[in-house]
């Protein structure tokens, strides 16, 4: 998984975050990136739908056998296979955002670069999912206790919910650069998770604020029949590319920066 020294070598000493500047540049770079990003996003959606249909058919066939344990086990296995096949495309779209931030040529097929790191991405997704699930589990403890007819003081129940949400949000924001680090700097899954988390820690509140603003922009743009998403989805991916460029622009282990040099 890599030594502490090797992880530290990938963590920048410091960087600046300007929310307005990042959003402004990301919006400016939407022109020329809509087709590649939406083309790759379309492939991801079509693949997810196709795999979902296949999974549904397999589930029905197994359910007819009458062996419920097979249904549960196959469902879990199918979900893992879907992650294995689809998440590399998401990582590839994030890589397109980095290339766009550097004014490099981008195309739909750039999204397939993630398949060169399929297993690293898969294990990263699995570990991140487990960590985030712990946060959600803590937040749900009061609900589970109520289901068991166990009552706690309201203040203690609220504390569980808040602690769980804090854990979830901390790691969800902290791992925003994991896929990019796996592809661009060829890090292992745990290395990428630690480098991302420790780098984000330097400006966690600013990056959390930026992420919440982008979620709000996506929500508002989706209201008019989703038309606004044509522009805001590429903007979000571009913003992550701009952030990555600004944070790691001085690194010597980047493949995409080497292509620009």
What is the residue-averaged pLDDT?
Answer: 89
- Beginning-to-end CA distance, first to last residue: 29 Å
Fraction of helical residues: over 70%
Largest sheet: none
Return the domain count.
1
Segments where pLDDT lies below 50 for 5+ residues?
Answer: none
| Percentage of β-strand residues | under 5%
Tally of DSSP helical segments: 11
Q: What is the H-and-E element order?
A: HHHHHHHHHHH
Number of strands: 0
**Large-scale geometry:** globular
Judged by helices, strands and strand pairing, the structural class is: mainly alpha
Radius of gyration: 20 Å
Descriptive account of the structure:
- By secondary structure, the protein is mainly α.
- The protein has one domain (19-252).
- Helices cover 75% and strands 0% of the residues.
- The protein has eleven helices and no strands.
- The chain has helices spanning 4-8, 19-28, 34-63, 68-101, 118-147, 154-174, 178-184, 189-201, 204-222, 229-248, 255-260.
- The radius of gyration is 20 Å and the shape is globular.
- The relative contact order is 0.17.
Short description:
This protein is mainly alpha-helical and 261 residues long. It has eleven helices and no strands.
What are the key terms here?
globular; 261 residues; 0% strand; mainly alpha
Layout of helices and strands:
Layout: H1 4-8, H2 19-28, H3 34-63, H4 68-101, H5 118-147, H6 154-174, H7 178-184, H8 189-201, H9 204-222, H10 229-248, H11 255-260
Helix pairs in contact: 2-10, 3-4, 4-5, 4-7, 4-10, 5-6, 5-8, 6-9, 7-8, 9-10
């Amino acid at each position: 998984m890599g030594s502490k020294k090797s992880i530290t070598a990938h963590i920048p000493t410091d960087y600046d975050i300007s929310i307005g500047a990042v959003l402004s540049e990301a919006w400016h770079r939407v022109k020329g990136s809509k087709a590649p990003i939406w083309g790759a996003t379309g492939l991801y959606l079509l693949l997810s739908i196709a795999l979902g249909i296949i999974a549904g058919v397999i589930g029905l066939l197994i359910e007819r056998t009458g062996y419920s344990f097979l249904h549960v086990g196959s469902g879990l296995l199918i979900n893992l296979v879907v992650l294995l096949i689809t998440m590399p495309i998401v990582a590839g779209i994030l890589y397109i955002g980095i290339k766009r931030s550097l004014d490099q040529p981008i195309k739909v097929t750039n999204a397939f670069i993630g398949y060169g790191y399929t297993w690293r991405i898969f294990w990263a997704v699995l570990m991140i999912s487990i960590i985030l699930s712990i946060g959600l589990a803590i937040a749900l403890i009061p609900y589970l206790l109520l289901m068991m007819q166990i009552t706690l003081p309201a203040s203690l129940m609220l504390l569980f919910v808040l602690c769980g949400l804090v854990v979830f949000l901390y790691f969800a924001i902290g791992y925003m650069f994991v896929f990019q680090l796996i592809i661009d700097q060829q890090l292992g899954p745990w290395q990428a998770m630690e480098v991302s988390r420790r780098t984000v820690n330097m400006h966690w509140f600013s990056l959390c604020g930026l992420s919440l603003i982008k979620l709000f922009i996506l929500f508002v743009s989706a209201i008019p029949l989703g038309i606004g998403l044509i522009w805001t989805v590429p903007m979000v991916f571009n913003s992550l590319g701009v952030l990555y460029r600004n944070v790691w622009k001085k690194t010597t282990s980047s493949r995409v920066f080497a292509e620009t040099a």
